[in-house]
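Appendix B: complex inputs.
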Amino acid sequence: MRDERIARDARAAQYVALDVPGTFSVRLPLGIWTARDGEFSVLFQEWGDRTRRLAHLPIGEPLSCIGPLGNQFSAPSEGQRATIVAGGLGVAAFWLLARDLKAARAHTTIVLGARSKLSIVGRDELAALGFDIDICTDDGSEGFHGSVVDRVRSRPPSDVLYGCGPPGMLRALCRYANEAGVECQISMEENFGCSLGTCWGCVVPVRRGCPQGTGYPKAPREIRDYDFARVCADGTVFRASDVLWLH
Amino acid sequence: MRDERIARDARAAQYVALDVPGTFSVRLPLGIWTARDGEFSVLFQEWGDRTRRLAHLPIGEPLSCIGPLGNQFSAPSEGQRATIVAGGLGVAAFWLLARDLKAARAHTTIVLGARSKLSIVGRDELAALGFDIDICTDDGSEGFHGSVVDRVRSRPPSDVLYGCGPPGMLRALCRYANEAGVECQISMEENFGCSLGTCWGCVVPVRRGCPQGTGYPKAPREIRDYDFARVCADGTVFRASDVLWLH
Amino acid sequence: MAALSTSSALDMSVRIGSALLKNPIIAASGCYNRGAEYSRVTDISQYGAITLKSVTRQPRLGNEMPRTMSTPAGMLNAIGLQGPGIEYFLKADAPALAHVPTAVIASVAGFTVEEFAYVAERMDGIPNVVALELDVSCPNVDREGECFAAQPSSIAAVVAAVKKRARLPVIAKLMPNVSDLKPIAKAAQEAGADALSLINAVRGIAIDVKNALPLLANVTGGLTGPAIRPIAVHAVWEVASAVTIPLIGMGGIETGRDALEFLFAGAGAVAIGTANFRRPDVHMEVLAGIVAEMRGRGCERVTSLTGLANPRFAGSRSVEAAVARPKTHLEGAHE
Amino acid sequence: MAALSTSSALDMSVRIGSALLKNPIIAASGCYNRGAEYSRVTDISQYGAITLKSVTRQPRLGNEMPRTMSTPAGMLNAIGLQGPGIEYFLKADAPALAHVPTAVIASVAGFTVEEFAYVAERMDGIPNVVALELDVSCPNVDREGECFAAQPSSIAAVVAAVKKRARLPVIAKLMPNVSDLKPIAKAAQEAGADALSLINAVRGIAIDVKNALPLLANVTGGLTGPAIRPIAVHAVWEVASAVTIPLIGMGGIETGRDALEFLFAGAGAVAIGTANFRRPDVHMEVLAGIVAEMRGRGCERVTSLTGLANPRFAGSRSVEAAVARPKTHLEGAHE
Ligand SMILES: Cc1cc2nc3c(=O)[nH]c(=O)nc-3n(C[C@H](O)[C@H](O)[C@H](O)COP(=O)(O)OP(=O)(O)OC[C@H]3O[C@@H](n4cnc5c(N)ncnc54)[C@H](O)[C@@H]3O)c2cc1C
Ligand SMILES: Cc1cc2nc3c(=O)[nH]c(=O)nc-3n(C[C@H](O)[C@H](O)[C@H](O)COP(=O)(O)OP(=O)(O)OC[C@H]3O[C@@H](n4cnc5c(N)ncnc54)[C@H](O)[C@@H]3O)c2cc1C
Ligand SMILES: Cc1cc2nc3c(=O)[nH]c(=O)nc-3n(C[C@H](O)[C@H](O)[C@H](O)COP(=O)(O)O)c2cc1C
Ligand SMILES: Cc1cc2nc3c(=O)[nH]c(=O)nc-3n(C[C@H](O)[C@H](O)[C@H](O)COP(=O)(O)O)c2cc1C
Ligand code: FES
Ligand code: FES
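Resulting structure:
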């Protein structure tokens, strides 16, 4: 997709909110994958109505697109070893990060997981940035046989982990990072309504005191002792130590 | 559009019911314009949601299409002079009729009307069949300055009139034909639900006894003394002498 | 568990009172006429049943045009119960029902309790007709135009009167325009209804802005199609906790997935209306979708899908079905 | 007539009780937070007013996730009134409202009559706030969970209590899940409401078929967006014949044409909710559409469009407007 401003301003883990033409639907949030030369790209699969309609749009059709939206991964301190942990289409959050880490000459490992060999996405673009990719597949059809989190456990520890992928994977990654005391930033997903922070439709529970939370007082009879943060506007990036996994 | 069966079977004034891809809508009825060599065409304008979506479909996109549907114009008896009276996109009903009349060597006149010179459609295709087209425009920008019905009145009488166009035009044509005692067949339009005759959403009032009407008895307290016929399945072609114009 | 039944035949049959349907997919009233039109373009025998257009005591011309209008993901209609009346129906239409290649549910509409009872009684003995559905959403002449389905007492009066005179199982069809469907559903069950259909169309109006006039001649119409599906699933969910008789869920079903929403919410069967107008093969696609789900879950009887997502489901699945109900799917249900 | 006003300035202002809005386009409650987010992507000053997210007495965390879901031509939400509570709102949020570049309507929600009255009273004197909207669609704690807006008596109790203690004009917001909105609207008017908003979201449920669970953590959600537009226009049409106070119509407005449906049905103003989530410029497009219609009709005051299609419209247009009402547009209205 061609948009000078978005391609220029996009930061790691940011997303765009697309108005898919046709009958009404709320905007579709998609992570910004590559971004250069006035163009950016997205990676998506046909999940439902909006992604199906998007996939069937004629090439060249103009699209209304808001972005880049959301906060971003923070860079590692100098000399820190970073590991990127991507599950499935979660890899979409990492081209920009990998590019920045490369430019900063940070010591970076990329662990990329998928169901099976055939469903690996993003490998070539990341390899083109000059990285070796550590592939994991659930079915063992290529690389490490097991989840990306299993793989991370089996590797020498990093100073900072960057994660994006399905909720189960992120949860396991956070647990590992919190237990191991490793810094970990994850980019989260939820169903979005407005994509702009107004509807409170996309919250995640965070510990009280987390600067991304709403910060308002606890109600007298409220038994839940956490706060909510909006993935769309306060995130999508959260620290593993801030996010609560209730289920 | 390519469909061997529809292109072969289509008769004058028949239509197709298209399933426009995307979010739900009932099928879109469109008249069959030209039909030859395994292909047929339609003429349409972007009225609303379905026609807009249809216009923006990628070329080559497969479409589910039911048809040909509806009854058809009956041919004139030998030696009768026929006049085709088309208003705007109503011309869509007439390529097949013109082709048949040509083949039957019937003496045929075509009166084609539009708002103005720029909105005339269908002229070239009909001319290519070898007809002279008598153009009328509401604003006088080409041909006769006035409505097609005014034009028909001003011409030598025909034995049979075939009409298709906006309701106001059809109504005026029917009134003229009934007063002048000329046989007249019109192809009508209504909002369709099912396009197949099941929903009773597309009825027109016809005189009791019209073979196209429902034929069931009049209710005791019913003050309306007419019958209804379904445009989609009993029509779209009705005799001017059968149709009642209530408004 | 997934391997349990992949090779064995599935039992798709469902019961509506004494009627046994070969599968739970029904054509909704008013959208299928008497089936003949759709026979030209699809295999209607794959419907478990088709419901006829509602029949009244007297012939009715119905409303003036326009009667239908497209709306976002739906349509608005106000046909006005055009129809031949029961006498002419019995003479001209009923005999042909013998040729419908599946079960038939006759729909009855009326403006007084007596009209319902009279028409229902006359429907007795028509070949192929296995049940009666009462379209109690028409305005009640005796009660200042309020619909029968708006009050527990009036729906009970209609159902009780019909049950006294009709021999076929009776389905009462509820409408969504009430604050709480539960007492209405309970009243219908207590009055003897063998099943409930829900929902009828939702009241709506569209305005022709160009002419500053209502788009439908009748002003108010009924909104149907996918737009109303969440409203209809909500209705089934609510009623499923209040009654034990089978529910026929409808409103915006287009795919197997949509139908499963209704089954999981608590419906024993589903009906398809407006979606026939888009895809005449829709019932086969819906059936295939349900079959695929059953194979995926390894369940052999379609009845075992009923109420799976609804922890308050009060109805009984058929005895044979109970074993197949995977308890795990209830875990984590939010109440 | 078309030439009458093409060169003169149009009067787009509308009155809601004592509040004068510069135009009749309002951002709906819950869809605009406090305006700040949308200021980044559009010109919010072109809204006649923005309505804040409903504020309760106590802070509320709201429902668990998932809270929203896409549905055909709409969305389902169950946020659960997450919010800071009135104290924290007054401290942390209210001062910033001075910078909102248009009028602000504060929305109040509560679970008892006293809560409504208390929060409404505390809203007094906030800069820029010109009216109070009462979100009476939350379950009534004192009456076994029935919503205040479900019964004439309970909505009247809330409105009367608020009117006694609040100085700002009061708008009661009605919900569509009732059999007849007219008595409820009348009760609100009689209790002193200065205007009515309609409609709030329609109750709906969606099921996650893969996991056989409700898709929303709260099970039931509110259906909004174009899918419900005919339901909302119907509500305005009905209520417009029952009360004389101004109506704010909402539900699925995406374009000027959609807004005109509501105005012609009897609304004096319109609100836009879900459509902001698609196109943040939607209010400007809607405003432009209304202006074009006024120029086309040659009418100078937007108030003269109200009720044009509704022969039973009972409200009064502003005096100046009456002359501009083209009587011919009523001809042919079907009753
Ligand atoms: C910040 C952000 C960034 C995102 N980036 C990407 C991206 O780069 N690429 C991409 O493909 N998607 C991405 N998503 C996810 C995408 O926005 C959703 O999948 C979206 O719901 C799809 O819309 P839809 O209308 O096509 O399907 P919907 O109608 O919303 O969903 C259809 C069905 O698929 C299921 N479903 C939807 N999304 C998922 C999912 N992610 N995992 C499992 N089941 C799902 C739903 O539960 C539903 O049953 C992102 C989401 C967020 C919030
Ligand atoms: C048998 C039959 C044959 C037809 N053949 C053709 C054809 O060959 N070419 C063609 O363009 N159309 C034809 N139509 C008309 C076409 O089906 C309708 O215009 C259809 O409603 C457009 O669908 P839509 O969803 O795009 O617009 P809708 O959403 O249905 O309508 C959008 C707006 O346009 C108005 N509108 C729609 N149609 C018309 C109309 N015909 N005249 C004036 N205002 C209208 C509506 O009132 C509404 O305000 C035919 C209709 C029938 C019944
Ligand atoms: C054109 C049309 C006519 C209908 N006529 C009737 C009717 O006569 N009796 C009845 O009980 N329901 C009638 N209905 C309602 C349907 O049976 C069904 O309840 C409703 O359409 C919801 O299902 P759907 O969204 O799948 O269409 C009609 C619906 C449509 C669209
Ligand atoms: C995400 C969301 C949150 C909402 N929150 C509130 C609320 O707090 N108070 C309220 O009165 N209405 C609330 N509403 C209802 C809207 O104000 C409006 O009545 C409804 O959405 C219909 O309009 P629409 O179709 O334009 O969205 C909410 C709607 C949405 C979509
Ligand atoms: S999607 Fe609306 S607040 Fe995040
Ligand atoms: S469109 Fe359904 S009967 Fe004609």
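The longest strand of chain D covers residues 103-109.
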